[in-house]
Amino acid sequence: MPNDFTLSCPPPFTPRKTVVLGHGSGGKLSAQLIREIFLPAFDNPWLRKLDDQAVISIDGGRIAFTTDAFVVTPLFFPGGDIGELAVNGTVNDLAMSGARPVCLSAAFILEEGFPLEDLARVTQSMARAAAAAGVAIATGDTKVVNKGSADRMFVTTAGIGVVPEGVEISASNARPGDRVLLSGTIGDHGMAVMSRREGLEFDGAILSDTAPLDRLVEAMLAAGEIHALRDPTRGGLGTSLCEMAAASKVGVEIDARLIPVREEVRAACELLGLDPLFVANEGKLVSFVRAEDAGAVLAAMRQRPEGREAAIIGEAVAAHPGMVLMKTEIGGTRVVDLPFGEQLPRIC
Amino acid sequence: MPNDFTLSCPPPFTPRKTVVLGHGSGGKLSAQLIREIFLPAFDNPWLRKLDDQAVISIDGGRIAFTTDAFVVTPLFFPGGDIGELAVNGTVNDLAMSGARPVCLSAAFILEEGFPLEDLARVTQSMARAAAAAGVAIATGDTKVVNKGSADRMFVTTAGIGVVPEGVEISASNARPGDRVLLSGTIGDHGMAVMSRREGLEFDGAILSDTAPLDRLVEAMLAAGEIHALRDPTRGGLGTSLCEMAAASKVGVEIDARLIPVREEVRAACELLGLDPLFVANEGKLVSFVRAEDAGAVLAAMRQRPEGREAAIIGEAVAAHPGMVLMKTEIGGTRVVDLPFGEQLPRIC
Questions:
Q1: Predicted ipTM?
Q2: B143/A24 CB distance under 8 A
Q3: All structural domains of chain A
Q4: Are B298 and B219 in contact (CB under 8 A)?
Q5: Taking the CA atoms of chain B, what radius of gyration do you get in angstroms?
């Protein structure tokens, strides 16, 4: 796996001695941290898969298990808040293995002086999101640190789900010929947070897409054979495709003209010099689907509100394994590569 | 359950508008936060039990699920570090349901500028602790926040384990007549951290007791009928006993002279004006055991290194349900009540 990463992302790393924002970006520096620090220390078959969740065989069944820390700023943004994000993010990481999410844990780190009213607002938002996804927040923990030792509130959720029999989904299972399906527009979450943070005039016009995707996955599984699934959160669609291409040792060819992007999001990205391909989403998925099932799966996706704008954006190929190529708007071809570091810090 | 808390801890609460350090203490303010914010929002049967883990029926089996955030300062202290604590703490919360721990997740929140060398040291320490407890760190996440937005490093672990058939352990299952068994000396972890933090002359003489307790619990289960188990971490033995008495609606009577406390710990507590009964432990458990099995369970505990100093320190009674009484060193009797707020902030 480390070699595949090296293949798709030649590492021009200067040796670093301290953590930089880019280590949390989901890009090359994140991959380096995983490869050089976490994998050697924790080495085991689950972690080595580099999926966003572990699937563990217990008592004859299979349990999906995942965690994410949320440090988004601001805590409340157009279309959502840190609580909704923390629930949907973990529900979605479970769903990306094909699992039915069962329950979540929630651990809060609070800064002394944080308004209890905001804590109540976040927990109520988590409760609504959990109810919408059909999961319980079954266990939790709260720690308080002195003023100045944390920025208001961090929320870490973990979750467990049940993987149905016969389902074998992993970022490493894409095969040449598979069609690449995207569930809707990209960049909404990242630009909603950024426009609030930067006080742009788009503020309020762009809403985060935060949403649970477990029922969309259920509908897709019923319609055809799904090989790989990922929700393109931090690092965006571009990063997810690079990771899946590397993990599955397939080439990926996509067409920019087929990728839906909202007009406001495109404009905001241009203003800030960002590429929507690398901007975070919190209610979208990208999937590698067996070619003959692609039409049926697409139709099933479009019948659900969270997949209404789904599109086939490309395919997996045997050529250039680990590399993602994109036909651009003007008909050229570019290599899609992992961003080096941080495009948008603290976006989730 | 909220009413039981009210019973054992008459709430002289002034209305608060912001989070204070005491909300993370494990004492009355923590209980208030759970009762007034988390329970109403997340209400479900698992959370309502107020155990340190949820036990969930999946596919005919039972899975224990738990989480804890770790914000201890300093990160490295005599006898351990935040990584070892994060693994053992979650392993122990699983073990307290009688579960065999299977795997953990680890979510890191890092401050920009944190030395990579320290990150490597912590992860290696986590790996050693996981190997010692026989669990895998199967999934994880890393977020980085800008300098000043977090104090170096926070680690949140979650864990899943398998509860063996026939095992029914909960803080609410203690019964009158049960013997109260304690696995060893109290206060070591809290005073190890405090002596380092305060630069006391005890620094280095007192070591944290951080240790996995899953094998001790396994030995206890093989020796007799265990009704309730808890690891007295923040809030200490006193808080755990108050919570178990309230949850089980039993009275508890213990004898201070039977509770082992190291001489150095006692001296350090006196110097800082602390009561060892409320100081954190990270490798101890307290258990309510069926009276006729108490001798056999005690013998089994003493055969393991982490239970060598185990002792029977009292019993559960039908009188004064929810109230813990302690015979003092000088022969008097005192009520053991939940501490109001924070005795030792950021101890775990």
A1: 0.93
A2: yes
A3: 42-162 (3.30.1330.10), 179-336 (3.90.650.10)
A4: no
A5: 19
Question: Out of B16, B38, B156, whose CB is closest to A156?
Answer: B156
Q: Is B114 on the interface with A (CB under 8 A)?
A: yes
Amino acid at the residue A127: A
The reply to whether A107 touches chain B by the CB within 8 Å rule is yes
Q: B253: helix, coil or strand?
A: strand
Taking the C-alpha atoms of residue A172 and residue A179, their distance in angstroms, rounded to an integer, is 15
All residues of chain B having their beta carbon less than 8 Å from the beta carbon of residue A109 are: 69, 71, 109, 154, 156
User: Nearest CA to B98 among B221, B210, B245, B181?
Assistant: B221
**What's the pLDDT band for B8 if we cut at 50, 70, 90?**
very low
Strand A76-77 relative to strand A153-162: parallel, antiparallel, unpaired?
unpaired
The reported pLDDT for the residue numbered B14 is 55
Q: How far apart are CA B22 and CA B14, in angstroms?
A: 13
Q: Is A71 helix (H, G, I), strand (E, B) or coil?
A: coil
Residue with tokens 């923590």: B30
pLDDT digits (tens, 9 = 90+) for A182-210: 999 999 999 999 989 888 877 778 999 99
Query: DSSP letter string over B140-177?
Result: EEEEEE-TTSBSSEEEEEEEEEEPPTT----TT---TT
Question: Which is nearest to A106 in space by CA: B163, B149, B156, B57?
Answer: B156
Measured distance CA(A327)–CA(A255) in Å, rounded: 5
Mean pLDDT estimate for chain A: 93
Residue A12 has pLDDT above 50, yes or no: no
Decide if B144 and A109 are in contact by the 8 Å CB cutoff.
no
